[in-house]
């Protein structure tokens, strides 16, 4: 089916929303509470559009496409409504983009930029709330929360950890952990899924914040998590060729193996990459002391040792343990080595332990 958005004929499939069809065609419609992973929420109205034949503005994140639909995303009424929403959101809380960890990586800031808002027109006086630094890996800044609810849906229904929820009423409403505990004292397992979906700087990772690295300064490289056999796809963010932080790969919201989610190890456990304690060359024991050696030297020692055991005690005196942290091909090669060259079936794998 086809619809017309801002005068452009756009292809769409039944079941798609106007927002999805517009984004697929490269047309910018802002969305603060909608996220592909958490779905529509209808909370923010940032995504409103005008549709020919329909009264009032419609939320494009919830409006299903119809063949022949004519949509406008940039009429004065649409832009005025969006401007009001952004100005109110910026006026509440304490949005100081200059010092914010999410500067240049913030959907509210991006929306303000597109609308040409330099500063909010309203002044809402309030005292700043201290940041929640109690968690090992995540910083919560409720002054920057726009109450979009993405983190709540992600925690409740995405990773099903059921830590985050909305509490209190009216202007006191806020996102809390459990029954309003500091995050570090709550049942949070630090998967970081809430950070992944937060559109602003209300939930950020501690690692880059402490190292004064902001997301837009980094380069993302897609890698496979080395921790277990699931093989989650990770965007490894580096700056100056050094580790900065890890996020689930963003092109995989609806795809296996991890559907854009990570566990605590994949999210926070990769900083060992730059550890000075990391072994960077083989070590060979000489006169009881481990000393650095070349790969040739180390492999010679292993080959001689294996051969000596095989000759003296037979092939079944040797066993091979492989790992879920290497590829299937490497595991295959090692079991072939054990069976065909050494002559033993003593082969096992850490995934069975
Ligand atoms: S959350 Fe976004 S809008 Fe708010 S201070 Fe940070 S960058 Fe600016
Ligand atoms: S880190 Fe994971 S478990 Fe903790 S609040 Fe966020 S989504 Fe929930
Ligand atoms: S913490 Fe972030 S994701 Fe959660 S409601 Fe606030 S702005 Fe939205
Ligand atoms: S993105 Fe559509 S209502 Fe928030």
What report would you give on this structure?
This protein has 353 residues and is α+β, with helices and mostly antiparallel strands. Among the domains are: 2-74, Ubiquitin-like (UB roll), CATH 3.10.20.740; 218-278, ADC-like domains (N-terminal domain of TfIIb, Single Sheet); 283-352, no CATH class. Helices cover 25% and strands 18% of the residues. It has nine helices and 16 strands. The protein has helices at residues 18-24, 76-91, 107-115, 150-158, 193-197, 206-210, 264-268, 295-313, 328-342; strands at 2-5, 8-11, 48-51, 58-59, 70-72, 138-140, 164-167, 174-177, 203-205, 219-224, 233-239, 242-248, 283-286, 289-292, 320-322, 347-349. A five-stranded mixed β-sheet has the order 2-1-5-3-4, with helices on both faces. The protein has a three-stranded antiparallel β-sheet with strand order 10-11-12. It has a two-stranded antiparallel sheet with strand order 6-9. Strand 11 (233-239) and strand 12 form a beta hairpin. The chain is elongated and about 90 Å long.
